[in-house]
Amino acid sequence: YIPMALLEKRFIMSWLLLWLLPGCSQKLDPPVIDILLYIEADSESGNFSRNAILPISNISIPIFPQPVFTSADMKFVEIVDSDCGKCLMITLSERAGYELYKISIDSINNRLVLVVNGQVVGFSVIDHGISDGTILVFVEMKSRDLESMALDINKTITKVHRLKKER
């Protein structure tokens, strides 16, 4: 035997939940993660903010305080195979690609360091002028984590560009 008052409360609560939940789920957006690319600094000059330390190899790279590229400069990322294994290919916007070319000409033999949510995750060696607007970043993480990170980065890039258009 279930009292009628209890049944009425359950009925009302069920309808309230059904009415409120669709509104909540529509407001959820993909997370925005912090995606930054820094250029290696000359450690002898003292003109750097910190050492970026890679998570597995523990390689230490001195970097300038300001990033050279952010998610707003990126078009998309994808995982590609290279001679050295899987890496993350970052494709920049046309404007950022032009900046990359200028930076790469002046920074041959330096590295670009990828930092995601404050964590150093990989680097790219600049061995020539990069004129196609793409950067191959060798990331120190497991393949499944790399796939997940690439998906999250693309969601963030899409959201950042959507917000820029709305302004």
What do you see in this structure?
The protein is of the alpha+beta class. It is 36% helix and 31% strand. It contains three helices and nine strands; from the N terminus they run αββββββαβββα. The strands form two sheets. Strands 4-1-7-8-9-6-5 form a seven-stranded antiparallel β-sheet. The protein has a two-stranded antiparallel sheet with strand order 2-3. It is globular.
- Detail the poorly predicted runs: 1-28
Strand content: 25-35%
Helix content: 25-40%
Structural class: alpha+beta
Number of helices: 3
- Give the overall silhouette: globular
Number of strands: 9
Q: What is the mean pLDDT?
A: 83
Instruction: List the helices and strands in order.
Output: HEEEEEEHEEEH
Distance between the termini: 59 Å
Rg (C-alpha, Å): 23 Å
Strand order of the largest sheet: 4-1-7-8-9-6-5
Salient structural properties:
single chain, disordered N terminus
